[in-house]
Amino acid sequence: VQLQASGGGLVQVGGSLRISCAVSGIILSVNEMAWYRQCPGKERELVASIAGDESTTYSDSVKGRFTISRDVAKSSVYLQMNNLKPEDTGVYYCNTEAASSRYRGPWGQGTLVTVSS
Description:
Blueprint lengths: L1 E5 L3 E3 L4 E8 L8 E6 L6 E6 L5 E3 L7 E6 L4 E6 L8 E7 L14 E6 L1
Parallel strand pairs: 2-10
Antiparallel strand pairs: 1-3, 3-8, 4-5, 4-9, 5-6, 7-8, 9-10
């Protein structure tokens, strides 16, 4: 399993950013995938997930602002982030939603999102 997050950067408050995750070794149509983030001084948290049937869930902190999606043909998962806030600053990672999944991969470096005020 390989997971490569990309697309992070510096954005102003209220701005938008779309980050991507290239996935290998996992069939996206049958495995629930998720985006996680680790904000400065905090533990890693799950922010959004997309199941095999494309149903989605979001943490309360991002609901209504973030949208998770996937492209099975490109084996990629995306996170569209709108109306960004300074508290969204952190390193974003993708992985399986379930920690116990046989396909849970290494966390890697993630992609850094910085929201400036």
